[in-house]
Amino acid sequence: MASFIGANRHYWPRGKVLGGSSVIGSPHILMLSGIGPQKHLESLSVNIIITQPNLALFRLNDTFVRNVFKKGFKKGFTLIPIVLHPRSRGTITLKSTDPFDYPNIDPNYLDHTKDMEVLKRAIKISEKLLETDSFKQIGTHSDTYKNAVFCAMHEYKSNAFYECLITNLAHTAYHPTSSCKIGSDTDPEAVVDPALKVKGIEGLRVADVSIMPKVISGNINAPTIMIAEQAADMIRGIDSVKNIRRRSS
Ligand SMILES: Cc1cc2nc3c(=O)[nH]c(=O)nc-3n(C[C@H](O)[C@H](O)[C@H](O)COP(=O)(O)OP(=O)(O)OC[C@H]3O[C@@H](n4cnc5c(N)ncnc54)[C@H](O)[C@@H]3O)c2cc1C
To answer: Which of 28, 140, 161, 221 can pair with 154 through a Cys bridge, CB separation 3.0 to 4.6 Å?
Structure first.
């Protein structure tokens, strides 16, 4: 694990290693190092150190339906239905054992029927809102996509029409997480333990957004900084926010 290749030389760490290559990079490096799903690693003849069946499954937050602005609009607003807690799970797999080869990323958006249902319901709620008297007074209507050519083959506002709209307009807000989930020692899905240590390996931690057990409802950047701060505390063996906690309790 953790050789660094530069100028045709390999560098090996003498001490402990802290990985922070994020939701794609961390599982990529771990799998290249022999930590990952057995069958997949065997298929590429990677020397297996620990089998970790759940490494590299990840969730993507914020699949949302884009609005399309018409040219010439001076003022406007956007309603953005979002699947905050998607059930669909993507995968990251090795393309090869070359560390400079990017991994395969399959986000698998909208794979779970529930995600599609949530978006359909959210669009219908948005449409109802736009048809209220208050909104109509400012000139809104819910027919923005009535003439959407890409879904013209479906009856307007039918189930198939909404699914077509979603498939064509859904977008990501770039919040993938959970490819190296944190969890208790007895949690079979957990890649790292509560101290961020990769289970079954000495001296290796992961501290980045990949350890979130599930995607959270809010933005993920600030919580990731919190994860990093917590990692720094655990490594140094200090509690740097003790005073703040005492003041707020
Ligand atoms: C377009 C976009 C917009 C976003 N907008 C928001 C927002 O508005 N608000 C919000 O809260 N969050 C936002 N996010 C999410 C946020 O940026 C990430 O959640 C956050 O940066 C995750 O931090 P991290 O430390 O896990 O990863 P990163 O900040 O990505 O850091 C990982 C580092 O590891 C390096 N790395 C990766 N692989 C390797 C390797 N093999 N070897 C060496 N180094 C490697 C990378 O170069 C990078 O520097 C956005 C993300 C994107 C992509």
So the answer is: 161
